Amino acid sequence: MLWASPSQQDQALHTSLINAFNQLGYSYRSGNEDAALDTLIRASECDEVGLGSSAKRKGKRIGAEKAREILELFKRIPQYGHAGFRHFEEIQFFVDGISKDRISDIACNFIKSFLIDFTIDECQRLRIPTAACKIANLYDYRQYGFVSAEGVELPVHPETGEPLILVPKRWLRFTPWINYDDYFKHHCPLDEIFHEPEDIGRVQVLAFNRDNYGAVEKYIAEKERTFADCSNDPLFSQIPIVSAKRKLKLIQNLKTGKTDNADRDYEDAMCQLLPSLMYPQLDFAAAQSRTESGSQIRDLIFYNNQSHEFLKHLMDDYGSRQLVFEMKNVAEVSRDHINQLNRYMTDSLGKFGVLVTRHPLKKPRMQSTIDLWAGQRRTIVTLTDADIAQMVELFESGQRLPLDVVKKKYVEFTRLCPS
Q1: Do residues 344 and 326 touch, judged by C-beta distance below 8 A?
Q2: Which CB contacts under 8 angstroms, 24+ apart, belong to 78-81?
Q3: Which structural domain range is residue 326 located in?
Q4: What is the CATH number of the domain that holds 291?
Q5: pLDDT tens per residue, range 148-162
Q6: Is the pTM of this model over 0.90?
């Protein structure tokens, strides 16, 4: 967004950001490896801005090994060693474990001085109270490194007292304009890596990119040519009411099972409908969300921003930083379906899950969920076609929140559990 902006100020910030990043490469190649590694590690997390999914706004910095892998790109790929990066988002295509959150954190840290000035101006304009804060990592372009600053007037988190930094809305996109998923789907020469596309994993693609920089260069050139399409986007836009009703009708008319891809059509429709029904109480929905190991795929997952008392209860009682919704287009839910959702309910996601299916649970399966609560204090509530229809009705009328249907099902479930 900085690079594509018509604002000379934004373009200058992008230039300073890229220069700071490329300076790390120069220092690393010149023998100042420890200093370059330390600077990159410190730049890899920006708690004051808080972009990401951490419940406590405390992320984890990259390690020395990962930082070295990034800086080695300046040695391994001649183009970067000679001319540096034009867009440092390109590191996504060569180093595993670098995602959009890490990209935004590094960017925010290198331009933090500007963001602090912006935050101070906004606080004065909107009369947001501030307090004198200490900023541990403030990049100094004269020293090519981070320094600390005392007495910076910033708003603070009401519970932790930690400083908060604001970001201009015009810079926000849900995903970077240059991103791995777009490259892999539309530009990566898959048949040059493997003849069996289903065998291609991220590691193989990154290894190919490191030895075939031209593939990435072509992609970057294409993104630069189409920069007019790069615009800030609302992080989420609800579908119209008429579209929600059409999705509901499509769902209700689907047969159960997998015939004619009915199971996939059911998931697709639900993954489009539910985010609109739940917004803004539940946000940042991700369909087919894969775990870091890649061994599990959750149908639909929401970030719990705890803006509603029910969602705060789920966080307090079940540790649900994120909520998992599992879709099953089946005539009857089986024990395996319950166990599958149970496996997703880990400490990192919390012990509350939602099973979205066509019909109410049979008595043995309902007893399975009750036993799960009694033995492990894990809760699974079920949304049926009738519940989804009620949520769409509330979405249309605006009289209550569709989320209240989930709360209702939760209350009904807890009344069945032993006291």
Answers
A1: yes
A2: 79/213, 79/217, 80/25, 81/25, 81/29
A3: 241-416
A4: 3.40.91.30
A5: 999 999 999 988 899
A6: no
